[in-house]
Every structure is written in C-alpha cells, then in structure tokens.
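From the methods appendix. Each design record in this collection lists the tokenized structure first, followed by the designed amino acid sequence. Records were kept in a plain field format so they could be parsed without special tools. The example shown here is representative of the layout used throughout.

RECORD:
FOLD TOKENS (443 positions):
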C-alpha cells in the first residue's frame, strides 16, 4: 500500500495541500442549509468568539446558517438568584410562571450576547472587517407539551409550526437566522421550548443538509469510544436496546427525529473543542458523531464518472515514481478494472484487477489509500476485495509489481517471485529499467 504524498515535499506547501483537501467539503456545503443547535454552556466558553468567527466564515463561503440556542445554565443561575426551584422530568423542565419569566430574561440576554459577538467586527480573526447580519424573530408557533404520564409540564411547549418561508427569505438575503428557545401561541402566550427539539423541528421543516448539536459530550460513546458514524438503523438500535448511556440516547432521539423529517445528516459535536464545528464539517473523520440515513462509505466498482477522482488520487504517486504513469485515455479504457473507496463523494482509495485467464493469474495494480485516510485498514479491505473478485472469475493466484511496499505484501501472504512466474503477455511488458519486485499469492 502506498500513500499519495511524495517523500520530498516542497517547503511551505503544507497549507496548500490542506486547503485542497477541504475544497470538496466547501463545495458540498455551499448553498446548503445548516442548522446549529448551540447549548447555553457554549456562550460561556473562552473560545466563543472563535466559534462566532467559524460560523461567519461558513456563511461567507455560502452556507445558509440557522442558529438555535439554548439557555439552560443561564436560567438555572437566574432561578437560583430568585430562589425559584428547578424541576425536571425525563430531562425536560417543568415551566411555571416564575420559571418562564427567567427563561424570557435569559433568552433576551443570550440573544444580545450572540448578536454583539457577530457585530464586533471579529478583530484578529480571519473574518476581521467582515459584516455578518443576524436576524431573529417570531418564526415559531408553539403549543403546550401538556400532561404526560401524570406530569403537567405547564408552560413548557413543543413546536406547532415553523414559518419556514420567512426563514428562507432571510437566508436568501445572506442573513444568519437566530432562533430563541421560545415559541408563541396564536393568542400571544409564550412557551419554553427544549432547544434540541426546536432545532430538530426547524431543520426538518427547512429540509436542512446538516443539523449540528453542540453538546457537552464528545459524541455518541460505545464502550467508552466515540462512534464517528451511525446509520439511522444503528442509531435506532442504540436507543431501543439502550446500548449507550441516557445522555447519548437523549441526543440520538432528537437526531432521529430530524432525520425522519428529512434532514440529510445530523452531527453531535463537543462544544468544548475550539474549532470543533469546522473539524466535524470539513475533515474526513470529524471530531464527533455523524448520523445519516445511509452509510456514506462504500467500496464499489469504478465508473467513467470516477476518472477525474482517480487521476487526482494516483497522480502524486505517478509523479514520484511509485506508480507507472497512466494516461487519461488508458485509465478511461480500463476503468472497469478498478475498484474505489469512496466517502461522502470523495475517492480516497483504489485498486485494479487485470485477469490472465489462461494462466489463472491476476495482477493487482494501483493499490493505494490517500495518506489523509490511512490507518483504518482500508488497504487490507481493498486487497481482500480484489482477492474475492479474482476468485469469482476462476483465478487461483494474484501477483503485484512494486518498488516501495514489499514488506506490506509479504506480511499479507505474498511471496517473492521472478519474471518467469509472470504470464507470458506480462513478461513481454516487464520494464527492466524500473526493476519492480514481483510478489505472488495463492488464493
């Protein structure tokens, strides 16, 4: 297995490679609606202004941003000062008149803090001197949550209707929409809304591309480890079988609600990590958990549409001599020989199988995984896939020619061979100047 970077990299070009690596993610988010649910604790983080700069940058590159914020810690503080008791059932606040008064006060203060952060010009940040307009309003109609299992939640409400057309108009103008955790009835009555439920409802109505919950956990944790990706089926199993703790189940329920309403992807991101939202949206592995309606990663046969992606993957290796150069025309002719690893529309691994039926031999070529994605056993997956495809067409042995990754193949059951062991047709094409080493494996 090889990686896609040359051993001799030009000084100062590291940032260029990084910028190129995020370009597909920028393209994927431009023009898309992104709803971010901001826990009230985030407002108090030291890097809150950096977070605002990150959101401003996302808006600047064309993302349509809706911010839904929570105020739980601020409300708790106000209620403590006023000696008002907090009451929760199943993680949901029972909101009486005194509690609602605190919610209104806290929501107003936090809204002003957020608007002020966007309005300060963001000095000493990449968004210095930028202008970012934030718009808030009565976008949400609510109704009482009611009495559940004998508990009267009083002035705690749930979303009844989202004025999606009004929100879309503001987004069309390039504005960031800010939504407080309050909803109003047609008669003017106010209700306290759970910010996660509110964000799920808003994202669902807008059919958002992404919904991100900025929370106090690293993501969904299984056996102490963060699960970076989950399908809807897996998330449902985690919830129904209680395979994760109560906090993860709480987050997953709202994630599943949003996905069922038509949101494409839901992300659970730790708010304590400076730049976490950017890492989650603009890198392969992210930093939290992403839940999708289907598995984003696939190993499949290449098509003509993959030629450009394969060229980008293989070109650096051809330039440094690791792989033999393939002209685009040759790659187009041989595309049905290739298999690719794809994640979220990005090709990051490949391998090709060239059968020689008369000798029951197959050549595996162009086995590579981009260096940014190595370390997860993807090279092994590609090798096993090629071996299975070779067996399907009746081949009994597989050979490779390599100049740099001999030990990798030896560890996986290949043995050294000579030119005489190659199929006659391949023997004639062997490049004696390149002097590639030959390894063969019995299937």
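DESIGN:
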């Amino acid at each position: 297995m090889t990686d896609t970077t040359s051993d001799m990299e030009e000084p100062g070009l590291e940032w260029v490679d990084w910028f190129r690596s995020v370009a597909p993610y920028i393209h994927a988010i431009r023009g898309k609606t992104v709803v971010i649910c901001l826990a009230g604790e985030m407002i108090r983080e030291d890097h809150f202004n950096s977070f605002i700069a990150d959101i401003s940058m996302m808006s600047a590159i064309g993302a349509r941003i809706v911010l839904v914020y929570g105020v739980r810690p601020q409300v708790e503080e106000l209620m403590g000062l006023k000696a008002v008791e907090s009451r929760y059932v199943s993680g949901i606040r029972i909101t009486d008149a005194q509690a609602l008064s605190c919610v209104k006060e806290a929501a107003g203060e936090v809204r002003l803090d957020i608007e002020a952060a966007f309005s300060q010009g963001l000095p000493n940040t990449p968004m210095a001197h930028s202008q970012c307009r934030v718009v808030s309003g009565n976008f949400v109609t609510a109704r009482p949550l009611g009495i559940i299992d004998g508990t009267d939640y009083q002035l705690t409400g749930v979303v009844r209707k989202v004025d999606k057309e009004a929100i879309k108009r503001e987004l069309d103008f390039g504005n960031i929409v800010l939504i407080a955790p309050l909803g109003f009835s047609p008669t003017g009555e106010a209700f306290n809304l759970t910010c996660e439920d509110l964000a799920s409802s808003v994202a669902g109505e807008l059919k958002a591309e992404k919904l991100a919950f900025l929370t106090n956990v690293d993501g969904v944790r299984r056996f102490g480890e963060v699960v970076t990706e989950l399908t809807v089926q897996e998330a449902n199993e985690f919830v129904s079988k209680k395979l994760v703790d109560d906090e993860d189940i709480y987050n997953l329920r709202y994630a599943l609600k949003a996905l069922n309403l038509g949101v494409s992807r839901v992300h659970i991101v730790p708010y304590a990590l400076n730049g976490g939202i950017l890492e989650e949206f603009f890198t392969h592995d992210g930093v939290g958990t992403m839940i999708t309606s289907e598995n984003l990663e696939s190993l499949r046969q290449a098509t003509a549409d993959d030629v450009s992606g394969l060229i980008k993957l293989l070109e650096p290796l051809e330039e440094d001599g690791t792989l033999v150069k393939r002209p685009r025309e040759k790659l187009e002719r041989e595309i049905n020989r290739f298999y690719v690893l794809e994640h979220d529309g990005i090709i990051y691994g490949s391998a090709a199988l060239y059968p020689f039926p008369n000798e029951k031999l197959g050549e595996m070529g162009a086995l590579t995984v981009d260096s940014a994605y190595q370390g997860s056993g993807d090279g092994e997956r590609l090798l096993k896939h090629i071996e299975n495809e070779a067996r399907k067409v009746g081949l009994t042995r597989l050979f490779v020619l390599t100049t740099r990754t001999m030990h990798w193949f030896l560890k996986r059951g290949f043995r050294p061979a000579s030119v005489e062991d190659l199929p006659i047709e391949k023997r004639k094409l062997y490049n004696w100047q390149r002097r590639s080493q030959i390894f063969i494996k019995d299937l």
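APPENDIX NOTE: Residues 97-119 form the longest helix (23 residues).
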